[in-house]
Amino acid sequence: MPVIPALIGIVKTRGEGTYAYDWPRTVGGTETAVKLAYVKGFEPWRIFIGTGVFIDDLWTAFLSQLWTLLGVIAGLALPAIVLLALVGHNISTTIARWPTACMPWPMAT
């Protein structure tokens, strides 16, 4: 089904909605990709306004932001983990030396 009649049908039946369709990636190109359109009617003027985005562009943007977020989390978590390990080691060493450091006399075996 052609895109514009499908969008008009969505506006007439629901007032607004989305429509997925294949569309060429470049002008005059043969490679197509799935595009998602959103359309909403504006009844006082009897028009509709719509926009569209390629799904693979959304996926690329999502992965980019995901890797950025993971990098920030790793950058913040790594120093915290190292600090916890150092503090834990310091506490463990102190506790291990504590019985002999606190006793005024040597223990008999």
Could you characterize the architecture of this molecule?
The chain is of the alpha+beta class and 109 residues long. It is 55% helix and 26% strand. The protein has 2 helices and 3 strands, in the order αβββα. It has helices spanning 3-14, 55-102; strands spanning 16-24, 32-42, 47-54. A 3-stranded antiparallel beta sheet has the order 1-2-3. A hairpin with a 7-residue loop joins strand 1 and strand 2. It starts with a helix and ends in a 7-residue tail after the last helix. The model has no long low-confidence stretch (mean pLDDT 89).
Query: SS-based structural class?
Result: alpha+beta
What strand line-up does the widest sheet have?
1-2-3
Count of helical regions: 2
- Helix percent reads 55-70%
Number of strands: 3
Radius of gyration equals 32 Å
User: What is the makeup of the main sheet?
Assistant: 3 strands, antiparallel
Mean pLDDT: 89
The portion of residues forming beta strands comes to 25-35%
Task: List the secondary-structure elements in sequence, H or E.
Answer: HEEEH
Which outline best applies? Answer: rod-shaped
Report the uncertain regions.
none
Q: In angstroms, what separates the terminal alpha carbons?
A: 93 Å
What would a concise description of this structure say?
This protein has 109 residues and is of the alpha+beta class. It is built from two helices and three strands; from the N terminus they run αβββα.
Write the layout of secondary structure elements.
Elements: H1 3-14, E1 16-24, E2 32-42, E3 47-54, H2 55-102
Antiparallel strand pairs: 1-2, 2-3
